[in-house]
From TrEMBL, chains A, B, C:
Catalyzes the N-acylation of UDP-3-O-acylglucosamine using 3-hydroxyacyl-ACP as the acyl donor. Is involved in the biosynthesis of lipid A, a phosphorylated glycolipid that anchors the lipopolysaccharide to the outer membrane of the cell. Pathway: Bacterial outer membrane biogenesis; LPS lipid A biosynthesis. Belongs to the transferase hexapeptide repeat family. LpxD subfamily. The gene is lpxD. The keyword Repeat applies. It is an enzyme of class 2 (transferase). This is UDP-3-O-acylglucosamine N-acyltransferase. It comes from Pelagimonas varians. GO terms for molecular function: N-acyltransferase activity; UDP-3-O-[(3R)-3-hydroxyacyl]-glucosamine N-acyltransferase activity. InterPro entries: Hexapep, Hexapep_transf_CS, LpxD, Trimer_LpxA-like_sf.
């Protein structure tokens, strides 16, 4: 896809300097860029590579001395990382899924496909499913009975949408994402060892064997607009009502969202995050990679949970949390520093005991 | 599916009061229930919503004042959460997978399918596979060479059962579950850095580069009756004998079970649990979400491992464990409280040092 | 597959003793071996089972008294675990995927398949994909536009290789592995709460709501020779250049490798490991199960990160790390011991305070 520097700058709404008619076909890192690529050097330390590569044009930060790097043209972005969003959209060649309904796809006659929907090879679309205009259904995708997907969705290969799931507009599903698996909800005829251990804070579990009866998930999953779900991530359906993911949420790979969970708008759930059943997550919450949140908790708006942390209690709005169990970040850092200095503390106390023992004459 | 209150109560084996002829079509939470839904309010704090919703009937706890909530009928369950199991089974509309063998499925002529087996669109059933009566094989499922699955299985979309896996009756596989991937077993010609670090408890690793030779997994996986495996979970095959999952075990989403692992009956493995190779798990063990168990360990019957914990040593029967490395829950709580109070302890010791220094005159 | 003991020993390059003409068909653990199986007892404690089983031949350690176990023949391996690699390869019956291109597979006419490539039922091979000689493409695999896979690959059922991914020779992909999902890269118009919290080490997050703009992944994934990727693992594509996995790396199940990550040669990434974006991993690094590495870090060659550890800072070469945040293993062990002894320390300090208080007369 050839673009002139002037076209790119105009499309991104940022200024350019130099030869706006210069044409580029793709983007590259500075050191490996060829003459017809746009080098990306969004911070001064990245710009060093420009002299090693052959780029004639680059996207740089706002006040960059582009001529000093020997360039013929430069796009100068006030917040280059943000501008990268629109630039990368322009330059993305995509996955090359074909247009139209592939003849090998199995589309139930009762499914309703909008205008310009494409369906890839060997996809399965179930009875009464509804797919909005302009959606791209990749190869080997499965969409269940009565599932509803809004306009302009992009479902990559092997995404699975179970029965009665409802998804808003502009949804992106990475390969193997699974929306609408059954909740993990089992019950014993009598109180289980877990119920007892929770009630007693750790008293030993049961002595008798117990087997588990299944609670079926009668709810489904509702997902808002502009949501992305990562590769091989799983969103379980609710027990009675739907599990809910709000508008603008982005979930990374291998994330687990349990039954009945409610996630507010614009949350980021990084890779391998797990949220146990019935927990409520506020708006604009960020969960770092591998963070876990226990069941039936409330996480306030704009909370940030550090990667690898385990949240075992409610979190107030705006709080930055770290550790296991997760605590306020500065408390964690203080405890952690103390932990590192413990060996010295043990020596100090041993010395004090000797000194005091001498003073009291109890030797 | 219309049911009268009397029918439901009879089927569940619990009493009802009021108008048993009242008909409901599905279940709902109290506040959002319509007049033809059965509201579920299994604890007093859930019942408040009844006045906001339009339900005329509800399932409540044993001695609930159902008339006080303005209902016409009520099902009164002694342990409502347990009764929910049978109720949810009655009310589950399912995934709508069709009956019979879908013409797009690829079923090897040597595969043996029992009576009333259904096979979904684009499923693949390999040579000499055996599938028990009444099993439902969802769309895009893959069942390998000589795999054997018992009666009344439900394999959701995209489940993969590898060659020679043996599964008992009433198995449930959530979408994307993978049974029988190869074990992660690699060996170096000379002792590896890991072997050395384990032997020396942390002495630095190797200085020479090493590459890894693959040990093939000649065993497979054997799974008992009444087992459920969650979405995108993986059970590796054994090296020489089969990896084993006992009767009644329930595994949540994104769980990893390594090669040669043996899991006893009726265990719960919550989401994102990982069990490393050759570990033996007893009966009725519960592993909380994201818990990990190291290789070659023994976890006793009825042990409960808290979510996010990392088990690095054997666990006796009935023990409740928490933390990393996991220890007895009350030890963890005590250590953790100490950690929180460490800053004060450092101040106390500093004060003591000053006081003692004054006393001894060493200032 | 029948083999004589002499054939096996010759093929493995290790000596045998006794009746080399004895024939075995498969391998077994000592206690369950039948008369025509080769028992594997690679350590003295495993050999006890030989008397319970019916094996007439076994693979044992170098100086084993095989006649004392009542055997007719024995293969004596200097490093039996290493010899197991070649033996298991000989004895592996495989998954039974058929030869040739299955008629139900959807192979784009522009795809280039090498000599002796087999393609399983319902696989999809996209336009301009290139697959090397002797590769086995399992059922329901998907290979994207312009993806290139080297010779002798083995892609198990449901592997997904996205567009423009490049993979070397002898690649093994376990079921459901996903190579080339989009990176998790989102940006806010203004500085995000995470950026602020990182800059301030934990100052509270934003007060205003923010939504996320997507940065498309214009790079792809490059994978070297002799790499194995586990079941349902995910490797994200890079933002501008490719994410990179070096020769000889082995990744277990449910592993996440973020965008732009570079992994050096011969690394082991155990199950459920997560590596965040742009981190660089050296050669021969071992990451234990569930370990996590934060973004933009450098992990030195031959480092070993214990299972469940969370790496939040750079790691020098050869270092053995444990804990959260991960520290040198012996520091972690020392801190941990201190933590366990904390309750006693609190008592000691309380006693000292009393004693000092008496001495100073401030009671």
């Amino acid at each position: 896809m050839p673009f002139t520097i002037a076209e790119i700058a105009q499309s991104l709404g940022v200024p350019f300097e130099g030869d706006g008619s210069l044409t580029v076909f793709s983007v590259a890192e500075p050191a490996s860029a060829s003459a017809d690529q746009l080098a990306l050097a969004m911070r001064p330390d990245f710009a060093e590579g420009l002299t090693q590569g052959a780029a004639r044009a680059a996207m740089l930060w706002q006040d960059a001395d582009w001529q000093g790097f020997g360039l013929s043209a430069a796009i100068l972005a006030p917040r280059p990382r943000y501008t990268m969003s629109a630039l990368s959209e322009m330059m993305d060649p995509g996955q090359g899924y074909g247009a139209g309904i592939h003849p090998s796809a199995v589309v139930d006659p009762s499914a309703k496909l909008g205008i310009d929907v494409s369906v890839g090879a060997l996809a399965v679309i179930g009875p009464d499913a509804v797919i909005g205009d302009g959606s791209v259904i990749g190869p080997q995708v499965q969409i269940g009975w009565q599932a509803r997907i809004g306009a302009n969705a992009l479902l990559h290969a092997g995404v699975r949408i179970a029965a009665r799931v409802t998804i808003g507009e502009r949804f992106v599903g990475q390969p193997g994402a699974c929306i609408g698996s059954d909740g993990f909800s089992f019950v014993t005829p009598e109180k289980s060892g877990v119920e007892k251990a929770r009630a007693s804070l750790g008293e030993e579990g049961n002595t008798a064997s117990q087997s588990w009866a299944r609670i079926h998930s009668l709810g489904s999953v509702t997902i808002g607009n502009d949501v992305e779900i990562g590769a091989n991530s799983c969103i379980d359906r609710g027990t009675v009502r739907d599990t809910y993911i709000g508008n603008g949420c982005k979930l990374d790979n291998l994330v687990h969202v349990g039954h009945n969970v409610m996630v507010g708008e614009d949350c980021l759930l990084c890779a391998q995050v797990g949220i146990a059943g019935s927990t409520v997550i506020g708006q604009n919450v960020v969960l770092g990679g591998q963070a876990g949140v226990s069941d039936n908790l409330v996480i306030g708006d704009r909370a940030i949970i550090g990667g690898g942390s385990g949240v075992l209690s409610n979190v107030p709005a705006g709080r930055v949390m770290l550790g296991y169990p997760a605590v306020k970040m500065d408390s964690h850092v203080e405890s952690y520093k103390g932990l590192r200095r413990l060996p010295r503390l043990f020596r100090d106390v041993a010395d004090l005991k000797k000194a005091v023992s001498k003073l009291t004459g109890n030797d």
